[in-house]
């Protein structure tokens, strides 16, 4: 079996930067990514865009082409369209590729799973026609597909970015419903002076807001009590903003920030902690991305939301430490090589704190209020079903999972997990860290028996071998 010095899971900004540095140092590194080409969500299809004017997506997007080119030119082994579904503590990695399970081994493992969008369980959020702002970006970047006259609702930088991208491409938008409370602006104000040190980033956000405001698209600020209209499919959005409001549309894009994608780190049993500022769980790491298991590191937004620029720094820092652990770098060389990225992350911290406070998610949009609202989409468990399970004695996420099947579906709790932890915290009147989270296990995706009955691996000569069961 092929044994690598380091295996990287995830080909976004953190993973690509780590792979480049590791390959330059001469170690045997492999990077596995679900996409056909590296880039992650932020640089999806940047190097081979199907858009007639990819520059309309902004400089932050087109600058990704240089990184993808540098990555594809390095000596790292890149396994594209690989879906990793198991990582063992001994360094064994199992993944699906072309309908076949494959296996490899690594001395060091770097997880770069990125982020997922926070669930926004308002009434009607599971109706056909309701998607996330991230889904709007995926469709736009991958296939140049857009939704005309859609509604965008929620808060956070990504919401404004995708609306601006739509407008630059001439796509009509029905309305923007901004749910950021006025109180958040006041609470974030004390950190504004420190955030000014990152003026280019602040200016970027202000320009997006100005661009949308000048377009003539209706923008409603500090909106509350959102609910999707429609019985069998979305027909619009109802909300309150200086009185009751309704906008008609067949497509509604929701966004309430992003959270680390932690299912893989959870299945490995890595320690996690509750990030109060970002109102989400994240894996516990040191400044090098080192987790509670010595040979496993986590970098990028998968270890805590820091944005694409921060993820690139974090990927290189994790790679420096891995090279030190592999005895390629001395302690002094590791620290010298890391200094620039460490300094950059320190400089970004005030801006990150400002953004976290400004767009801190409100409970009204994090947790459902209507008893009929679905919480677990896979198993169709409503808020009232989970409350009944709690009243029947299921006081922690795993007990509630056993009693109601909430979290047992194909997504393995990606959507309902954050909601369940916070619901139980509210019902028990205890912090999320006390309540805990689902206990997750491999496999991380659904597998057919046909695939599971066989696997392939590369031997030391690089020759592919197959074992059938």
TrEMBL record:
Annotated signal sequence is none
Q: Does the keyword Oxidoreductase apply?
A: yes
Which SUPFAM superfamilies does the protein's record reference?
Answer: FAD/NAD(P)-binding domain
Any one GO MF annotation of this record = oxidoreductase activity
Q: Which UniProt keywords apply?
A: Oxidoreductase
Per its UniProt entry, which superkingdom is the organism in? Answer: Bacteria
Show where the FAD/NAD(P)-binding domain sits: 4-304
The family database entries (Gene3D superfamilies) matched by this protein are listed as: BFD-like [2Fe-2S]-binding domain, FAD/NAD(P)-binding domain, NAD(P)-binding Rossmann-like Domain
Among the Pfam families in the record, one is Pyr_redox_2
Name the chain's protein: FAD/NAD(P)-binding oxidoreductase
- Organism, scientific name: Phaeobacter gallaeciensis
């Amino acid at each position: 079996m092929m044994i690598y010095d380091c295996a990287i899971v995830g080909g976004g900004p953190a993973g690509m930067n780590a792979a480049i540095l590791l390959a330059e140092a001469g170690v045997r590194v492999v990077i596995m990514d679900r996409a056909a080409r590296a880039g992650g969500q932020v640089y999806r299809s940047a190097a081979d865009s199907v858009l007639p004017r990819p520059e309309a997506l902004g400089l932050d997007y087109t600058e990704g082409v240089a990184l993808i080119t540098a990555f594809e030119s390095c000596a790292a082994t890149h396994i594209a369209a690989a879906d990793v579904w198991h990582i063992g503590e001994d360094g064994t990695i199992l993944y699906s590729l072309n309908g076949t399970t494959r296996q490899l081994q690594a001395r060091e493992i770097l997880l770069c799973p990125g982020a997922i969008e926070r669930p926004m369980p308002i009434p009607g959020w599971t109706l056909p026609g309701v998607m996330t702002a991230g889904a709007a970006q995926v469709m736009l970047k991958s296939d140049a597909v857009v939704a005309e006259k859609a509604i965008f609702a929620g808060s956070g930088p990504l919401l404004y970015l995708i609306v601006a991208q739509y407008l630059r491409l001439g796509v009509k938008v029905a309305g923007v419903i901004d749910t950021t409370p006025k109180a958040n602006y006041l609470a974030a104000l004390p950190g504004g002076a420190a955030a000014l040190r990152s003026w280019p980033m602040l200016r970027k956000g202000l320009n997006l807001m100005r661009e949308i405001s000048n377009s003539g698209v209706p923008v409603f600020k500090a909106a509350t009590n959102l609910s999707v209209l429609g019985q069998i499919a979305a027909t619009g959005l109802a909300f309150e903003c200086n009185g009751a409001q309704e906008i008609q549309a067949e497509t509604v894009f929701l966004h309430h920030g992003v959270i680390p994608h932690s299912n893989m780190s959870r299945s490995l049993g890595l320690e996690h902690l509750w990030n109060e500022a970002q109102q989400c769980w994240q894996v516990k790491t040191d400044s090098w991305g080192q987790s509670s298991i010595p040979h496993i590191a986590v970098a990028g937004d998968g270890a805590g939301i820091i944005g694409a620029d921060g993820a690139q720094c974090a990927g290189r820092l994790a790679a420096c430490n891995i090279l030190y652990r592999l005895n390629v770098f001395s302690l002094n060389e590791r620290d010298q090589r890391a200094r620039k990225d460490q300094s950059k992350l320190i400089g970004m911290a005030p801006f990150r704190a400002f953004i976290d406070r400004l767009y801190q998610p409100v409970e009204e949009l994090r947790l459902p209020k209507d008893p009929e609202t679905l919480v677990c989409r896979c198993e169709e468990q409503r808020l009232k079903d989970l409350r009944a399970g709690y009243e029947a004695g299921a006081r922690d996420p795993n007990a509630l999972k056993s009693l109601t099947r909430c979290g047992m579906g194909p997504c393995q709790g990606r959507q309902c997990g954050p909601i369940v932890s916070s619901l139980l915290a509210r019902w028990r009147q205890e912090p999320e860290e006390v309540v805990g989270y689902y206990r997750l296990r491999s496999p991380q995706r659904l597998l057919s028996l046909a695939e599971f009955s066989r696997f392939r691996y590369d031997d030391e000569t690089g020759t592919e071998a197959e074992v059938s069961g």
